[in-house]
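sry for the spam today, last one i promise. struct tokens for design, 161 residues
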């Protein structure tokens, strides 16, 4: 009886495997064309922009299609889904940034040294590495990242109102 049950189980196992293979083999193949590759958009890495001074704190984070804004240290972040047009604008500006040289970009002003402006920095966290800018004055980013930072702040303030 055990031998019969064993043979029956093996027969069922092998015939079920054969059925699945024939279904997979007959399935139509997906065609990858040049136009579908052009339509794919590279997602932004995790973006963190932070401004700090004695009386002010602001942290803007973009992660997984959401924008998080914290306006006080220790406060919980408020978040929204990023609109597609905002995501596209940030993505386009991100593509123009040289991440390898991000830490060498020079700040145009030095007001942060005497509390004339908050200390700000920007970081991009990819799967492999974190790219961090040097500190710069809030409101006066290095020219290489100026457009990206300004667009990021505009989007955060637009959503925060």
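last one done:
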């Amino acid at each position: 009886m055990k031998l019969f049950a064993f043979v029956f189980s093996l027969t069922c196992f092998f015939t079920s495997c054969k059925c699945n293979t024939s279904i997979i083999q007959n399935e139509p193949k997906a065609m990858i064309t040049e136009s579908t590759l052009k339509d794919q958009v590279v997602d932004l890495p995790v973006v963190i922009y932070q401004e700090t001074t004695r009386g002010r704190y602001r942290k803007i984070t973009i992660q997984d299609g959401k924008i998080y804004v914290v306006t006080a240290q220790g406060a919980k972040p408020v978040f929204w889904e990023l609109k597609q047009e905002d995501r596209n604008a940030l993505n386009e500006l991100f593509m123009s940034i040289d991440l390898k040289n991000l830490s060498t970009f020079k700040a145009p002003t030095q007001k942060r040294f005497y509390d004339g402006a908050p200390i700000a920095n920007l970081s991009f966290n990819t799967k492999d590495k974190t790219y961090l800018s040097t500190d710069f004055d809030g409101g006066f980013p290095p020219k290489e990242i100026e457009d990206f930072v300004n667009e990021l702040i505009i989007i955060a303030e637009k959503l925060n109102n």
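Confidence is low (pLDDT under 50) at residues 19-24, 27-41. ok im logging off now
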